[in-house]
Amino acid sequence: MVYKALDNIGAFQRWLGFQPNTKVATLIFGLFHGLGLATKVLEYNMS
After folding, report:
1. 24 near 18, Cβ under 8 Å?
2. Chain segment 1-47, per-residue pLDDT in tens
């Protein structure tokens, strides 16, 4: 949510001088969260 809020107000353009690609940012965000969830599931002892 914070990413999209900053995107909407043009903060990235002002701070970084360019606008990040939303699809790439979504992919990276999804990978980090997916890998984090996967490692947490591996900790459960299931038969």
Report:
1. no
2. 788 888 888 898 888 888 888 899 889 989 999 988 888 888 887 76
31: which DSSP letter?
H
User: pTM of whole model > 0.85?
Assistant: no
Domain spans in the chain, listed from the N-terminal domain onward? 2-42
**What is the spatial distance between Cα 36 and Cα 13, in angstroms, rounded to a whole number?**
30
Q: Dig out the tokens for 18 from the structure.
A: 């360019």
Nearest to 27 by CA among 16, 35, 38: 35
- Whole-angstrom Cα distance, residue 23 to residue 15? 20
